[in-house]
Amino acid sequence: SSFWHNSGASQVKVVAGTLLHVNLMNPSETQVQVDLPTLDIKLQADAHSWMYQVLGRVMAPLIQRSMQLFGGKVLSHFVAKCLADPTCPHLQQHVTTSLPSSSLLVI
User: Fold this and answer.
1) Cys-Cys with 84: which of 12, 27, 28, 32 at CB 3.0–4.6 Å?
2) Is residue 107 pLDDT above 50, yes or no?
């Protein structure tokens, strides 16, 4: 049905900050605090524009508080898990043994 289809544009302005407290002796006590002092959501839709304007105004504070409350807890979990694992981060080393042809100089 075409009732459920809509098109338009959106704009989100965010100011975010984090506070990271790392406890190397006891990684499970590591804490990350997320702060979102500004979260502005603007939704412009081709149809039912009034509903999308209200949706942006209503949902922005809910998303903002959820990210501040739960975002820090989720990030804390993953940082603590990585600190407890001596092989973390799991990055693959990229080693080149020859110079790229673009860096060679022939005289």
Assistant:
1) 27
2) no
